[in-house]
Amino acid sequence: MSRAKGTAVMSYGAELADPVADVRDVVETFRTYGVITADWHEVLSGAAEALDRLPEDVQAASRLPVLIPRLRQLLRSGLRSEDPVLQEVADHIADLLQETRIPGIPRPDDDRWEFD
Questions:
Q1: Which of 31, 39, 58, 94 could link 54 by a cystine bridge, Cβ 3.0 to 4.6 Å?
Q2: What is the CA radius of gyration of the chain?
Q3: Among the listed residues 90, 14, 94, the one whose alpha carbon sits nearest the alpha carbon of residue 54
Q4: How many whole angstroms separate alpha carbon 72 and alpha carbon 20?
Q5: Burial of 46 (0-12, 13-18, 19+ CB in 10 A)
Q6: Which among 77, 66, 59 is positioned nearest to 10, based on CA atoms?
Q7: What DSSP line would sit under the chain, residue for residue?
Q8: Other beta carbons within 10 Å of 69
Q9: CA 46 to mean position of chain CA atoms
Q10: What are phi and psi of 111, to 5 degrees?
């Protein structure tokens, strides 16, 4: 982990960021607009599988052993607005996206905003 202005930032790249962003898109589209996309099940299932394939040290640092079972729970129960698991997943995803550095992509708190 590296430090950027006092905040811990993980550098794992697309193998972590892509499935996390996919989950965010499905979950926040539902939470914000009440829309369930036609492919929501495939997207969450694919994301859970991709996250599950990450090395154990990446999973532990990202708290994925907590997130992955929650994603599978959403897959079984469906997306429901009052579901506390949905809120837990949304919060976890927001934290991960805040903490994850995607190589070559500047973050708002970076001093340099050029793309590498």
A1: 58
A2: 15
A3: 14
A4: 14
A5: middle
A6: 59
A7: -EEETTEEEEE-THHHHHHHHHHHHHHHHHHHH----TTHHHHHHHHHHHHHTS-HHHHHHTTHHHHHHHHHHHHHH---TT-HHHHHHHHHHHHHHHHEEPTT---TT-S-----
A8: 12
A9: 12
A10: -75, -35
> What is the distance of C-alpha 59 from the center of its chain?
12
- What are the C-alpha distances in Å from 45 to residues 1, 34, 41, 54, 68? 28, 20, 6, 15, 10
Q: Is the pTM of this model over 0.90?
A: no
Between CA 15 and CA 73 the distance in angstroms is 22
**How far, in Å, CA of 67 to CA of 105, rounded?**
25
Residue 51 phi/psi, 5-degree rounding, is: -65, -35
Give the number of residues written for the chain.
116
